[in-house]
Design a protein that fits this description.
single chain; two-stranded antiparallel ribbon; 3 helices; 2 strands; globular
């Protein structure tokens, strides 16, 4: 039987208030990020559609609450994941709005 260490994410991710889990990069690494609801609410209040928010804007705002390496390829991976999460957030807001 293949045993996985506790906390490996093999079963399920912990439900932590204020943490959003994103799949980042080509290998879809699971990364927990804080403050995304606040960031996405700010972007929506500014009238920024998901396709209009720049990569620098998304990554820069996420860096206020999270550590993201300063490497172009990693920043690009985070930008893709953040845009996907913001698109889902925006769609939910429009539905309930």
């Amino acid at each position: 039987m293949d045993k996985k260490p506790a906390g490996s994410g093999a079963c399920c991710l912990p439900n932590v208030e204020g943490v959003t889990y994103l799949q980042v990069g080509s290998q879809a690494h699971t990364v927990g990020m804080r403050g995304l609801d606040l960031i996405f609410k700010q972007l929506a209040a500014m009238g920024r559609l998901p396709e209009d928010a720049t990569d620098d804007e998304l990554v820069g705002m996420a860096r206020q609450f999270n550590w993201i390496p300063h490497k172009a390829s990693i920043e690009a991976d985070y930008a893709v994941a953040l845009r996907k999460a913001y698109t889902a957030f925006f769609a939910r807001q429009e539905k309930t709005g």
